[in-house]
């Protein structure tokens, strides 16, 4: 790659874009939700219980349903995951994380389509609908 003035101009614009994102209300909400989640003792206890249940299940998972405790450990894992997911702090963090991801997806889509409408951008979400593509239906015969 040849580094010239155009490259450095693009790099400066990227830095400006990142700074704008980091200074946005959406990003500040994300950081606040993350900090709140990690400082909550109940959330940390639920996360620890989930990690332990996950480790126990992973130890027997490779042997499949033939292990006597398979169903019980799988159910314990699901219950621990559910207990973690229903915590208000975790839900708020996930919502704010999705908001930041949505902005990043939009940025990537906008940049790619400035180059060419034919560029495919993996937005990470099957529900990302702002693409002007065919949605995969144009290749069906």
From TrEMBL:
Read off the Gene3D superfamilies from this record. Answer: YheA/YmcA-like
**Name under which the protein is recorded:** YlbF family regulator
Q: Which residues form a coiled coil?
A: none
- Listed Pfam families: Com_YlbF (PF06133)
Which species is listed as the source?
Enterococcus sulfureus ATCC 49903
């Amino acid at each position: 790659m040849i580094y010239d003035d155009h490259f450095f101009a693009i790099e400066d614009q990227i830095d400006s874009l990142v700074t704008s994102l980091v200074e946005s209300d959406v990003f500040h909400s994300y950081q606040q939700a993350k900090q709140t989640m990690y400082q909550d003792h109940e959330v940390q206890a639920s996360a620890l219980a989930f990690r332990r249940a996950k480790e126990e299940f992973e130890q027997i998972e490779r042997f499949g349903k033939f292990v006597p405790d398979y169903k019980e450990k799988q159910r314990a894992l699901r219950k621990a995951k559910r207990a973690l997911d229903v915590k208000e702090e975790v839900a708020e963090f996930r919502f704010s994380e999705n908001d930041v991801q949505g902005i990043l997806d939009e940025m990537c889509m906008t940049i790619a389509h400035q180059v060419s409408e034919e560029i495919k951008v993996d937005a990470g979400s099957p529900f990302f609908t702002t693409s002007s593509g065919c949605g995969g239906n144009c290749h069906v015969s």
